[in-house]
Write a structure and sequence with these properties.
Elements (H helix, E strand, L loop, with lengths): L1 H37 L9 H4 L1 H24 L3 H31 L2 H13 L3 H14 L9 H4 L6 E2 L2 E2 L5 H5 L2 H4 L4 H28 L1
Antiparallel strand pairs: 1-2
Keywords: Membrane, Transmembrane, Transmembrane helix
Protein name: Tetraspanin family
Subcellular location: Membrane
Length: 216
């Protein structure tokens, strides 16, 4: 009788754990969707592996949700075959979580303002107006100006007919100094680098914490 009570307690605990597991899985899917949207504009400045991270987060959340349902079913049955399959499935999820964490933390060091600035300079020097407009969209969205500062429009060897995302005939030092909104804006290279590092840190921390919860 005592053994039956213990088995019942274990089953209830497993169901409760898998219920929490399912809630965390839905949260991961939601985070992945948010980060997909956040990386639409700066995707040109990041590696493909990092750009795919939000997608991996959605996949991880979806698989984890399936695993939580399978765990609840296994808790209600005594099938050793299903239990073994569930353990293997969880091991795959743990490997995926570890991969996401590693990619996130490694990309924090790769998101340097110098690398991003070089790509931005190529955009502004390009003859393709779409490339230039893409950079101006970055300026508008992140409230930044120029590559390193607004003075880039005066000092650099490119002509866009704009000061930041503002249309003017010629961008001069006087125009920037006389405009408080322009002179106080940060450069876009460091701004985008900080955004990418923030997203990488957040994804890495979420994935690592999720990994630790599963392990314990």
């Amino acid at each position: 009788m005592k053994l039956q009570v213990n088995e019942t307690a274990v089953k209830v605990a497993l169901v409760a754990f898998n219920f929490v597991f399912s809630i965390l899985s839905v949260a991961l899917i939601a985070l992945g969707v948010v980060y997909v949207d956040d990386l639409v504009l700066p995707k040109k400045y990041i590696g493909l592996d990092f750009f795919e991270l939000p997608t991996l987060l959605i996949v991880l959340g979806s698989l984890s949700f399936v695993a939580s349902l399978a765990g609840c079913y296994c808790a209600r049955t005594d099938s050793q075959r299903l239990t073994k399959f569930f353990i293997i499935f969880l091991s795959v999820l743990l490997a995926l979580q570890l991969t996401i964490s590693l990619i996130s933390f490694l990309n924090m060091g790769n998101a340097t303002s110098s690398k991003i600035g070089a790509i931005m300079r190529n955009q502004l020097q390009s003859e393709d107006e779409v490339e230039k407009e893409s950079f101006h969209n970055i300026e508008s969205h992140y409230a930044c100006c120029g590559i390193d500062s607004p003075n880039d429009y005066v000092d650099a060897d490119f002509e866009t007919g704009k000061c930041c995302s503002n249309k003017v005939g010629v961008c001069t030092t006087e125009h920037i100094q006389n405009s408080t909104s322009l002179s106080q804006k940060p450069g876009c290279a460091i701004t985008v680098a900080n955004v990418i590092r923030r997203i990488a840190l957040e994804i890495g921390c979420y994935s690592t914490n999720y990994l630790l919860i599963n392990v314990y």
